[in-house]
Amino acid sequence: MSVQREYASNMSVSMLSPFGARLCALGLPPETLEEIAACDPLLEEVPARSERRSAAPAGSFDVLLRGWAFRYRDLREGSRHIAGLVLPGDPCDIDAVEFGRSNVQLGTLTRCLVASFDGDAFRDLCDRSALVRQAVTRLSMAENAMLREWNLCLAHRSASQRMAHLFCELHVRLAAVDAADRDGYELPLTQVHLAELLGLTAVHVNRTLQAMRAEQLIELSDQQLTVRDWDALAALAEFRADYLEMERAAA
């Protein structure tokens, strides 16, 4: 992987625009991004299908600017559980801001660009800036809200409901950073990835996708998801976007 540093503050703000869109979707003003960009992050190109032992290396605060990644844990029997998807504008591990370390690993689905902030400098900025501290708080709250919703999915919803909920959530999250259109979005997830994320077998994922196609809810071809009937998909998932706090930006 290669690492490059952008020294100009204006260039950093431009490069960090997906993170800025994420902050705006959470109701934060543009000045928040300007203060954060002043920390002069390193920009790191990460190849597709790479893995590292920590979602945020010791002492850093990392934000995904381009591409798709995922947080995961290796299980004792040799399998893997995907604990969440990291999309453009998302922190790789928000807990690293306070704890300085991560208990999850990071894998990339596509080629990614990551902004890596020095942890000490970023924590010092949080102490000095009420706006930046508020940003970290809201990002943490949004992360917790998604985790609570996924706990509910895994515990109580059927395979088709879980998948429908995932597709709806991704649509809203990607639209908030201008990475989805009205009809769908790029979906670089294999059926194995979907199985590891949804707590299903790959066979069950395949059958569920076939059923959703037959019901004309979605179409998935060449890593492009097309939503055929949003209202029916959302009704199946029992999906409401308010827990994401992004529905206004995605409207």
What does this structure look like?
With 251 residues, the protein is of the alpha+beta class. It has 2 domains: 2-145, Jelly Rolls (Sandwich), CATH 2.60.120; 157-250, Orthogonal Bundle (Arc Repressor Mutant, subunit A). Helices cover 45% and strands 21% of the residues. It is built from 11 helices and 11 strands. The protein has helices at residues 9-15, 17-25, 31-37, 96-99, 119-128, 130-156, 159-175, 191-198, 202-214, 230-237, 247-250; strands at residues 2-5, 42-46, 51-52, 60-66, 69-74, 80-86, 105-108, 112-118, 184-186, 218-221, 224-227. The strands form 3 sheets. Strands 1-2-8-4 form a 4-stranded antiparallel beta sheet. Helix 5 crosses helix 6 (130-156), helix 7 packs across helix 10 and helix 8 (191-198) packs across helix 9 (202-214). The longest helix is centred in the middle third of the chain and has 27 residues, at 130-156. Residues 1-9 and 247-251 have low confidence and may be disordered.
